[in-house]
Amino acid sequence: MRWGLIGASTIAKEWMIDAIRANDGVISCVMSSDETRGKKFADDHGIPHAVTDLEALFTHDLDAVYISTTNEKHYDQLMAAVANGVHVLCEKPLALTLDAASKMAQACENAGLVMATNHHLRHAATHRAIRQIVQDGQLGDIHAARVFHAVYLPPHLQGWRINNPDTGAGVVLDITVHNADTLAFLLGEYPEKVTARTHNHGMAGASMEDAAMGIWEFPSGVMAYTHEGFTLPHAKNGLELHGSDASLYAEDVMTQQPKGTITIRRNGEDTVIPTASENLYERGVGQFVSACKGGDKPDADGWAGVRSLAVALATLTSAENDETVSVDYGKSLNQ
Ligand code: NDP
């Protein structure tokens, strides 16, 4: 497939260019708003063309674009891709509002184009193993989940995410979306109600949060506790699922790296579950490519991106208004 990159971004540089090429993708062009940065990015990564606007991008013969600009730009860029008839792999959060994100998913659907949201964690071998364990009923009835996803935002990413509210900055739009998608993937359901608190520990600018905690209530009765943060250099990450028959502890699995361990504890005895090591982003791109060629739709499609955004927006509303919020998924829950 012939790809265009919309955004000369860190995630493209660190993971996605390799993941696209590992799936036999040819990257024809990168679009950056800055000519010098775009040219350097193209040279550094062996991309033949760099352009500074969408019109120039779509003069190239493309099958798909990967959008990894700052969050407020995703909507217009995706709509331009749809107008030009190319498939879209879009970064999370899809947009800043539920309405915008829903229109993005709907536009792709109406045009018969594949849309995927880059929720990489669904593609971790660990997460897939946990999902299978849940589906096999090994934990019994699940009563509780805990997600530990508070990190230290590396210095090279301490830019718009913590200092520019117009971009959809803050830890909730950045990380809570991943936690929502992860629990939906593992449990097969989305939370109905969210009660959340956010805090600023001094990394993010005024009026933005760099820490969040939430309590989520699911239709089945599962209660989940989630923690997202940018300011914790020493914290471990992971998740736990607690059921009537067993508890599952997954350490170091809320990460971009193909690593982590899974342990099931039953009657005080621990059993370690072996998992393979597979590049998360390569697998995600592989699913997207397969869908573009007529295969099954991606696990994390556009509507999954809408739903994860809905949970993040409910988190922000809950924290702001000091209340429990019923999550508004729009029509995305029925898609
Ligand atoms: P970056 O800050 O690296 O890139 C975002 C934009 O910032 C780029 O499009 C670029 O604009 C601009 N930019 C890049 N370098 C510079 C610079 N030196 N000076 C000024 N501007 C610069 O963001 P990320 O790669 O961290 O995130 C991009 C998107 O990807 C976000 O939506 C984020 O949420 C998502 N993301 C997803 C991850 C996942 O695992 N799914 C992980 C990390 C991020 P231009 O293109 O115009 O040059």
Concise synopsis of the structure shown:
The protein is α/β, with parallel strands linked by helices and 335 residues long.
What is the C-level CATH assignment of the largest domain?
Alpha Beta
Main-sheet strand order equals 14-13-12-11-7-10-9-8-15
Helix run count: 10
> What percent of residues are in strands?
15-25%
**CATH-defined topology of the largest domain:** Dihydrodipicolinate Reductase, domain 2
User: Describe the biggest sheet?
Assistant: 9 strands, mixed
Please give the alpha-carbon distance between the first and last residues.
Answer: 27 Å
Alpha-beta classification: alpha/beta
Keywords:
single chain, alpha/beta, 9-stranded mixed β-sheet, globular, 335 residues, Dihydrodipicolinate Reductase, domain 2, binds NADPH dihydro-nicotinamide-adenine-dinucleotide phosphate, 2 domains, Rossmann fold, 6-stranded parallel β-sheet
Describe the structure.
It is a single chain. It contains 10 helices and 15 strands. By secondary structure, it is an alpha/beta fold. The chain folds into 2 domains: 2-120, Rossmann fold, CATH 3.40.50; 121-283 and 309-334, Dihydrodipicolinate Reductase, domain 2 (2-Layer Sandwich), CATH 3.30.360.10. The chain has a 9-stranded mixed sheet with strand order 14-13-12-11-7-10-9-8-15. A 6-stranded parallel sheet has the order 3-2-1-4-5-6, with helices on both faces. The longest helix has 20 residues, at 302-321. The two termini are 27 Å apart. Bound molecules: NADPH dihydro-nicotinamide-adenine-dinucleotide phosphate. NADPH dihydro-nicotinamide-adenine-dinucleotide phosphate binds at residues 7-11, 32-34, 37, 68-71, 91-92, 118, 120, 157, 159-160, 174, 256. Residues 7-11, 32-34, 37, 68-71, 91-92, 118, 120, 157, 159-160, 174, 256 line the site of NADPH dihydro-nicotinamide-adenine-dinucleotide phosphate (NDP).
